What we know:
By secondary structure, the chain is an all-alpha fold. It has 26 helices and no strands. The protein has a domain at 1-106: Tetratricopeptide repeat domain (Serine Threonine Protein Phosphatase 5, Tetratricopeptide repeat). The chain is globular and about 95 Å long. The N and C termini lie far apart (83 Å).
Amino acid sequence: MSVNHSLDFIENTIKEDPNNAEAWRIKGDILFSQSSFYPSLVCYSKSIACDPNYFDAWCSKGKVSIFQDNALDALQCLDKAISVKQNPTAFRLKSHAITASKSNQNKIQKIIETGLKMEPENFDLLTSQALHFRNFAQKEKSVSIFEKILTIDPDNIIALISLERFKNPVDFDIINYICRKFSLEKNNLKELESFADQFFFNFDLISAESCYDYLISLKNPNQNIFKKITRIHLMKNDIKQAHEGFVNLLQNDKNDSDSWVRLGEIYRRQNKMLDAIECFDSALEIMPDNAEAWRRKGFAQSLRHENITEAIKCLDKSLELEPYHPMTLTQKSMYLRRVGDNDDAIYCLNSALEMDSTFILAWKQKAETLTSMNNLEGTLDCYDEILKIDPEDIITWYNTGVTKARFCEIQFQTGKLFFDKAKYSQAADCFNKVLKFDPLDKESILLFDKSNKNIP
């Protein structure tokens, strides 16, 4: 069955049952394989809306978010997937999402090691581990893992290519090597593109870029190749090349809504907000139901310090199109705080956390909002939830200590005021709260005991 026939079959299945989570996920996989990144993202979101605990859909949405250079979205999806099922695939993808978010190497390796404890000979995880070592210039560790992979799978192309490149870092020609190794002709473009895709979708961006560059150097490469190599530039944070790539893509196809969004995002990063909004508007003219374009337009408008209610309207439109999106709800909560609407901000954050209780950014925003409302007990509850998810979050540990100290001081001073006014029951409650966090505080122990003795 061809890909097109498969897509037709799946679309018919969805027509018969619009709540078929698996069908939506399969449609997303087909579109993703065709480099239709945003349409695939929409399908995964619809799949999740049908089944909020669908592991494969969360993983797939996380993966496409990495290739869309949406690292925070990807991490939210993959943390949710891991909360549904402890699975090596999710840990592997999370390691690449963290790489995209520019986090530290130790964290990446710990995540990969967690996955490898489940499946010590998982090819994908081992490959990701070796690639991460290679990217962090730890050649010996990378070589050792690639050699281990080849003992299990002698034809593993990523391992073969990487080891060969280590031997000949300057003169290595990946196209000549592939053609020689697999008895291909250089004009066998379909096979060479297949190898390039294998590198790309397994995060070997160096090898993928070399292959795509070769294919582009030939006449009439297809549009998908341009899309993928432009995504590589974006993932590598090569903004100049990515900008040129999206401009070229749009010259060939002005109706590519997704490329307008990505170009707009580049302008937003460059603080060119008017250009960014113009791109998002172009995307919306083509596809009025592009939820991501509405979301990013709202973000760009907020950064221009315009009327924040206009930014909120954009996010509301995005949520109308894609209700099951914790990140958009979290962004909306930030804007609501800026206009002083803390109650609605908390409502948005609670809605986001109902969808995904592992979403650390939402917990952090909720903690900040509650702090601004002087609800320090609520703030500490949020920090507790964050540390359950990520016990190594040093900043949250620090914030917890600072908040506990502030909370105890406020409760102690409030307790003294109650005590001086002979309101002993209220005073005892305050001192008890201090002792919950600092059971050895002598003054609180003394005043707590005195308060209790004076309660009628």
